[in-house]
Amino acid sequence: LFGAQPMADQALAQKNACMACHQIDKKVVGPSFKDIAAKYKGDKAAEAKLVKKVKEGGKGAWGEIPMPPNAQVKDEDIKAIVHWVLSLK
């Protein structure tokens, strides 16, 4: 069973269209998930900050291209996706 959860969270990221703008290891429209994990490594508040950013959208952290709000995504799905992203190395 170990290792099944990360795949489930990647599937959530795909289902919720995160992969339209982000890839695991390369920049597309937004930064790669691995770059996000590296930027927030060691930041105890990162998960809460990123959950809020995914839900409400944002701009400026990675340049001028805004991230649209994703208010339609369930909170528990956002938390699972953010947790997965932050676990990437």
Q: Which structural traits does this protein have?
A:
4 helices, globular
Give a quick summary of the entry.
This protein is mainly alpha-helical and 89 residues long. The chain has four helices and no strands. α3 crosses α4.
Would you kindly provide a written description of the structure presented here, covering whatever features stand out?
The chain has 89 residues and is mainly alpha-helical. The protein contains four helices and no strands. The longest helix is centred in the last third of the chain and has 13 residues, at 75-87.
Rg: 12 Å
What percentage of residues falls in helices of 4 or more residues?
40-55%
Number of strands: 0
Poorly predicted runs are none
Average pLDDT reading: 92
Task: Report the end-to-end length measured between terminal Cα atoms.
Answer: 21 Å
Helix/strand layout:
Blueprint (H helix, E strand, L loop, with lengths): L3 H12 L17 H7 L6 H11 L18 H13 L2
